[in-house]
Design goal:
The chain is built from twelve helices and eight strands. By secondary structure, it is an alpha+beta fold. The radius of gyration is 18 Å and the shape is globular. The chain starts with a helix and ends in a 5-residue tail after the last helix. The protein binds glutamine. Glutamine (GLN) binds next to loops. Glutamine binds next to loops.
Length: 305
Protein backbone atom coordinates (compact mmCIF):
# COMPACT_ATOMS: atom_id res chain seq x y z
CA UNK A 1 0.00 0.00 0.00
CA UNK A 2 2.81 2.44 0.86
CA UNK A 3 4.29 1.65 -2.55
CA UNK A 4 1.02 2.51 -4.31
CA UNK A 5 0.81 5.79 -2.39
CA UNK A 6 4.39 6.69 -3.33
CA UNK A 7 3.72 5.84 -6.99
CA UNK A 8 0.58 7.99 -6.91
CA UNK A 9 2.78 10.95 -5.94
CA UNK A 10 5.79 10.17 -8.15
CA UNK A 11 3.76 9.43 -11.30
CA UNK A 12 1.61 12.55 -10.96
CA UNK A 13 3.95 15.19 -9.61
CA UNK A 14 4.50 16.56 -13.12
CA UNK A 15 0.82 17.67 -13.15
CA UNK A 16 1.63 20.40 -10.60
CA UNK A 17 3.27 22.32 -13.46
CA UNK A 18 -0.05 22.40 -15.32
CA UNK A 19 -1.86 24.35 -12.59
CA UNK A 20 -1.45 27.65 -10.75
CA UNK A 21 -1.85 28.67 -7.09
CA UNK A 22 -4.89 30.79 -6.25
CA UNK A 23 -3.93 34.44 -6.48
CA UNK A 24 -7.27 36.21 -5.95
CA UNK A 25 -6.59 35.88 -2.21
CA UNK A 26 -3.08 37.48 -2.15
CA UNK A 27 -1.82 35.43 0.79
CA UNK A 28 -2.58 32.15 -1.07
CA UNK A 29 -0.31 33.21 -3.92
CA UNK A 30 2.62 32.52 -1.55
CA UNK A 31 1.93 28.78 -1.45
CA UNK A 32 4.41 26.36 -3.00
CA UNK A 33 2.98 25.31 -6.40
CA UNK A 34 5.23 22.22 -6.55
CA UNK A 35 4.01 20.65 -3.31
CA UNK A 36 2.09 17.37 -3.55
CA UNK A 37 1.18 15.09 -0.67
CA UNK A 38 -1.38 12.49 0.34
CA UNK A 39 -2.61 10.83 3.54
CA UNK A 40 -4.99 7.94 4.04
CA UNK A 41 -6.74 7.18 7.33
CA UNK A 42 -8.31 3.72 7.33
CA UNK A 43 -11.35 3.01 9.49
CA UNK A 44 -9.29 0.25 11.16
CA UNK A 45 -7.13 3.10 12.52
CA UNK A 46 -4.09 2.59 10.35
CA UNK A 47 -2.64 5.54 8.48
CA UNK A 48 -0.27 6.05 5.56
CA UNK A 49 1.15 9.21 4.02
CA UNK A 50 3.43 10.04 1.09
CA UNK A 51 4.96 13.08 -0.59
CA UNK A 52 4.75 16.53 1.03
CA UNK A 53 2.13 15.38 3.49
CA UNK A 54 3.42 17.59 6.32
CA UNK A 55 2.69 20.78 4.37
CA UNK A 56 0.32 23.08 6.26
CA UNK A 57 -2.41 24.71 4.21
CA UNK A 58 -5.70 26.51 4.74
CA UNK A 59 -8.79 24.37 4.62
CA UNK A 60 -10.76 26.84 2.43
CA UNK A 61 -13.89 25.26 0.95
CA UNK A 62 -13.29 21.87 2.55
CA UNK A 63 -14.69 23.62 5.65
CA UNK A 64 -18.04 23.75 3.81
CA UNK A 65 -18.46 20.03 4.57
CA UNK A 66 -18.31 20.69 8.31
CA UNK A 67 -20.49 23.80 8.04
CA UNK A 68 -23.15 21.67 6.31
CA UNK A 69 -22.82 18.94 8.96
CA UNK A 70 -23.30 21.50 11.78
CA UNK A 71 -26.24 23.22 10.02
CA UNK A 72 -27.95 19.83 9.54
CA UNK A 73 -27.31 18.86 13.16
CA UNK A 74 -28.54 22.20 14.50
CA UNK A 75 -31.50 22.95 12.22
CA UNK A 76 -32.44 19.65 10.56
CA UNK A 77 -32.72 18.68 6.91
CA UNK A 78 -36.05 20.43 6.17
CA UNK A 79 -34.96 23.84 7.46
CA UNK A 80 -31.51 23.71 5.85
CA UNK A 81 -32.85 22.75 2.43
CA UNK A 82 -35.62 25.34 2.63
CA UNK A 83 -32.90 28.01 2.31
CA UNK A 84 -30.33 26.22 0.15
CA UNK A 85 -30.83 23.78 -2.73
CA UNK A 86 -29.24 20.39 -3.40
CA UNK A 87 -28.48 20.59 -7.12
CA UNK A 88 -25.13 20.97 -8.90
CA UNK A 89 -24.63 24.48 -10.24
CA UNK A 90 -22.44 24.02 -13.34
CA UNK A 91 -21.09 27.51 -12.53
CA UNK A 92 -17.85 28.55 -10.78
CA UNK A 93 -17.80 28.36 -6.95
CA UNK A 94 -18.12 32.12 -6.48
CA UNK A 95 -20.74 32.72 -9.17
CA UNK A 96 -23.82 34.72 -8.25
CA UNK A 97 -25.57 34.62 -11.62
CA UNK A 98 -28.25 32.10 -10.61
CA UNK A 99 -29.10 33.84 -7.34
CA UNK A 100 -31.00 36.45 -9.24
CA UNK A 101 -32.37 34.39 -12.11
CA UNK A 102 -33.90 31.60 -10.01
CA UNK A 103 -37.31 32.44 -8.64
CA UNK A 104 -36.57 31.45 -5.03
CA UNK A 105 -33.10 33.17 -4.99
CA UNK A 106 -31.92 30.10 -3.05
CA UNK A 107 -28.25 29.18 -3.69
CA UNK A 108 -28.17 25.97 -5.70
CA UNK A 109 -26.25 23.91 -3.15
CA UNK A 110 -24.31 24.14 0.16
CA UNK A 111 -20.88 23.84 -1.48
CA UNK A 112 -20.84 26.94 -3.68
CA UNK A 113 -19.87 30.05 -1.72
CA UNK A 114 -23.43 31.41 -1.65
CA UNK A 115 -24.80 28.16 -0.21
CA UNK A 116 -22.03 27.89 2.38
CA UNK A 117 -22.63 31.47 3.53
CA UNK A 118 -26.34 30.65 4.07
CA UNK A 119 -25.41 27.43 5.93
CA UNK A 120 -22.94 29.38 8.12
CA UNK A 121 -25.76 31.70 9.16
CA UNK A 122 -27.91 28.69 10.10
CA UNK A 123 -25.42 27.11 12.51
CA UNK A 124 -26.25 27.34 16.22
CA UNK A 125 -24.97 30.50 17.93
CA UNK A 126 -26.17 33.98 18.85
CA UNK A 127 -23.37 35.66 16.93
CA UNK A 128 -20.50 35.00 14.54
CA UNK A 129 -18.06 34.07 17.30
CA UNK A 130 -20.39 31.39 18.67
CA UNK A 131 -21.10 30.03 15.19
CA UNK A 132 -17.36 29.97 14.38
CA UNK A 133 -16.58 28.18 17.65
CA UNK A 134 -19.26 25.58 16.93
CA UNK A 135 -17.79 24.69 13.49
CA UNK A 136 -14.15 25.09 14.58
CA UNK A 137 -14.75 22.67 17.48
CA UNK A 138 -16.36 20.16 15.16
CA UNK A 139 -13.31 20.36 12.84
CA UNK A 140 -10.97 19.78 15.82
CA UNK A 141 -13.02 16.80 17.02
CA UNK A 142 -13.37 15.27 13.54
CA UNK A 143 -9.60 15.64 13.00
CA UNK A 144 -8.77 14.54 16.56
CA UNK A 145 -6.47 17.55 16.82
CA UNK A 146 -7.21 20.26 19.43
CA UNK A 147 -4.35 22.45 18.13
CA UNK A 148 -6.05 23.35 14.82
CA UNK A 149 -6.38 27.14 14.51
CA UNK A 150 -6.74 30.05 12.10
CA UNK A 151 -3.90 31.25 9.88
CA UNK A 152 -4.17 34.95 10.76
CA UNK A 153 -2.49 36.33 7.63
CA UNK A 154 -4.77 34.33 5.32
CA UNK A 155 -7.78 35.44 7.37
CA UNK A 156 -6.77 39.11 7.06
CA UNK A 157 -6.13 38.66 3.33
CA UNK A 158 -9.55 37.00 2.78
CA UNK A 159 -11.34 39.66 4.75
CA UNK A 160 -9.58 42.50 2.97
CA UNK A 161 -10.12 41.20 -0.56
CA UNK A 162 -13.32 39.11 -0.26
CA UNK A 163 -15.47 41.55 -2.21
CA UNK A 164 -17.21 38.94 -4.35
CA UNK A 165 -18.23 37.03 -1.23
CA UNK A 166 -19.40 40.31 0.29
CA UNK A 167 -21.55 40.99 -2.79
CA UNK A 168 -23.01 37.46 -2.58
CA UNK A 169 -23.78 37.78 1.13
CA UNK A 170 -25.46 41.17 0.81
CA UNK A 171 -27.59 39.86 -2.06
CA UNK A 172 -28.62 36.88 0.08
CA UNK A 173 -29.42 39.19 2.99
CA UNK A 174 -31.62 41.25 0.67
CA UNK A 175 -33.39 38.06 -0.41
CA UNK A 176 -34.12 37.22 3.24
CA UNK A 177 -31.89 34.13 3.28
CA UNK A 178 -29.41 35.22 5.96
CA UNK A 179 -30.26 35.30 9.62
CA UNK A 180 -28.67 38.01 11.76
CA UNK A 181 -25.92 40.47 10.82
CA UNK A 182 -24.46 39.98 7.35
CA UNK A 183 -20.93 41.27 8.17
CA UNK A 184 -20.82 38.95 11.18
CA UNK A 185 -21.71 35.94 8.99
CA UNK A 186 -19.09 36.96 6.41
CA UNK A 187 -16.44 37.28 9.11
CA UNK A 188 -17.28 33.75 10.31
CA UNK A 189 -17.10 32.45 6.73
CA UNK A 190 -13.66 34.08 6.17
CA UNK A 191 -12.36 32.65 9.45
CA UNK A 192 -13.57 29.16 8.53
CA UNK A 193 -11.79 29.30 5.15
CA UNK A 194 -8.57 30.38 6.93
CA UNK A 195 -8.30 27.42 9.30
CA UNK A 196 -4.83 25.89 8.97
CA UNK A 197 -4.67 22.14 8.72
CA UNK A 198 -2.64 19.18 7.38
CA UNK A 199 -3.47 16.25 5.10
CA UNK A 200 -3.58 13.88 8.07
CA UNK A 201 -6.17 16.13 9.79
CA UNK A 202 -8.36 16.13 6.68
CA UNK A 203 -7.95 12.36 6.13
CA UNK A 204 -9.14 11.75 9.70
CA UNK A 205 -12.13 14.06 9.18
CA UNK A 206 -13.01 12.10 6.03
CA UNK A 207 -12.60 8.80 7.88
CA UNK A 208 -15.41 9.81 10.28
CA UNK A 209 -17.73 10.27 7.30
CA UNK A 210 -16.46 7.01 5.77
CA UNK A 211 -17.24 5.29 9.07
CA UNK A 212 -20.87 6.55 9.04
CA UNK A 213 -20.34 9.27 11.65
CA UNK A 214 -18.28 7.33 14.21
CA UNK A 215 -14.67 8.25 15.05
CA UNK A 216 -12.53 5.21 14.15
CA UNK A 217 -10.04 6.03 16.96
CA UNK A 218 -12.46 6.41 19.88
CA UNK A 219 -15.67 4.81 18.62
CA UNK A 220 -17.66 7.95 19.37
CA UNK A 221 -20.72 8.89 17.29
CA UNK A 222 -20.34 12.51 16.11
CA UNK A 223 -23.25 12.65 13.66
CA UNK A 224 -26.10 10.49 12.44
CA UNK A 225 -25.89 8.02 9.57
CA UNK A 226 -28.49 10.13 7.76
CA UNK A 227 -26.32 13.26 7.93
CA UNK A 228 -23.36 11.26 6.57
CA UNK A 229 -25.56 9.99 3.74
CA UNK A 230 -26.71 13.52 2.82
CA UNK A 231 -23.17 14.93 3.01
CA UNK A 232 -21.73 12.13 0.83
CA UNK A 233 -24.49 12.69 -1.75
CA UNK A 234 -23.82 16.44 -1.94
CA UNK A 235 -20.04 15.84 -2.05
CA UNK A 236 -20.54 13.50 -5.01
CA UNK A 237 -22.80 15.84 -6.99
CA UNK A 238 -21.38 19.26 -6.01
CA UNK A 239 -18.01 18.76 -4.25
CA UNK A 240 -15.79 19.83 -7.15
CA UNK A 241 -18.05 22.63 -8.39
CA UNK A 242 -18.49 22.71 -12.16
CA UNK A 243 -16.24 19.70 -12.67
CA UNK A 244 -18.05 17.38 -10.25
CA UNK A 245 -19.38 15.26 -13.13
CA UNK A 246 -15.98 14.65 -14.64
CA UNK A 247 -14.49 13.94 -11.21
CA UNK A 248 -17.19 11.33 -10.58
CA UNK A 249 -16.31 9.64 -13.87
CA UNK A 250 -12.54 9.78 -13.27
CA UNK A 251 -12.42 9.10 -9.50
CA UNK A 252 -15.88 8.19 -8.26
CA UNK A 253 -15.52 9.14 -4.58
CA UNK A 254 -17.59 11.67 -2.57
CA UNK A 255 -15.08 14.53 -2.34
CA UNK A 256 -14.68 18.22 -1.55
CA UNK A 257 -12.02 20.57 -2.86
CA UNK A 258 -10.71 23.93 -1.63
CA UNK A 259 -8.59 26.65 -3.23
CA UNK A 260 -5.85 26.01 -0.67
CA UNK A 261 -5.16 22.91 -2.81
CA UNK A 262 -6.74 20.24 -0.66
CA UNK A 263 -9.22 17.60 -1.76
CA UNK A 264 -10.97 15.55 0.91
CA UNK A 265 -12.24 12.18 -0.37
CA UNK A 266 -14.39 9.56 1.35
CA UNK A 267 -14.18 5.85 0.49
CA UNK A 268 -17.29 4.64 2.33
CA UNK A 269 -16.78 1.91 4.96
CA UNK A 270 -13.12 1.97 4.06
CA UNK A 271 -10.98 5.10 4.45
CA UNK A 272 -10.66 8.87 4.43
CA UNK A 273 -8.17 10.35 1.95
CA UNK A 274 -6.69 13.84 1.74
CA UNK A 275 -4.48 15.18 -1.02
CA UNK A 276 -2.69 18.53 -0.98
CA UNK A 277 -1.36 20.22 -4.11
CA UNK A 278 -1.79 24.03 -4.22
CA UNK A 279 -1.48 24.33 -8.03
CA UNK A 280 -5.11 24.50 -9.19
CA UNK A 281 -6.97 23.86 -12.44
CA UNK A 282 -9.30 26.46 -13.96
CA UNK A 283 -12.19 25.29 -11.72
CA UNK A 284 -10.22 25.89 -8.49
CA UNK A 285 -9.49 22.21 -7.85
CA UNK A 286 -6.01 20.79 -7.14
CA UNK A 287 -4.58 19.86 -10.53
CA UNK A 288 -2.23 17.06 -9.41
CA UNK A 289 -4.45 16.19 -6.43
CA UNK A 290 -7.21 15.01 -8.78
CA UNK A 291 -4.71 12.83 -10.62
CA UNK A 292 -3.41 11.31 -7.37
CA UNK A 293 -6.99 10.42 -6.39
CA UNK A 294 -7.67 8.99 -9.84
CA UNK A 295 -4.56 6.81 -9.54
CA UNK A 296 -5.54 5.57 -6.07
CA UNK A 297 -9.17 4.96 -7.07
CA UNK A 298 -7.99 2.79 -9.97
CA UNK A 299 -5.25 0.91 -8.11
CA UNK A 300 -7.35 0.26 -5.00
CA UNK A 301 -10.67 -0.15 -6.83
CA UNK A 302 -12.32 2.56 -4.74
CA UNK A 303 -14.97 4.08 -7.06
CA UNK A 304 -18.46 3.90 -5.55
CA UNK A 305 -19.98 3.47 -9.01
N1 LIG B 1 -12.12 31.45 0.70
C1 LIG B 1 -12.44 31.05 -0.65
C2 LIG B 1 -13.49 31.98 -1.23
O1 LIG B 1 -14.46 32.21 -0.57
C3 LIG B 1 -12.95 29.63 -0.67
C4 LIG B 1 -13.29 29.16 -2.05
C5 LIG B 1 -12.83 27.77 -2.36
O2 LIG B 1 -12.06 27.14 -1.65
N2 LIG B 1 -13.29 27.28 -3.48
O3 LIG B 1 -13.38 32.49 -2.30
Amino acid sequence: MQKILQEAIDNNRHWTAHGAVASYIPELAKENPDALGVCIYNIDNTTLCAGDSHTKFTIQSVSKVVTLICALMDKGKETVFSSVGMEPSADPFNSMVKLETRESHKPLNPFINAGAIVCTSMVQGDNGIEKFNRIHNMIKIMADNPAIDINQSVYRSEKLTGNTNRAIAYYLKGAGLIEKDVEDVLDTYFKLCSIEITALDVAKMASVIANNGITPWSNERLMSIEICRIVKAIMTTCGLYDSSGQFSVDVGLPSKSGVGGCIMAVAPQNMGIAVIGPALDSHGNSMAGKKVLEYLANELNLSIF
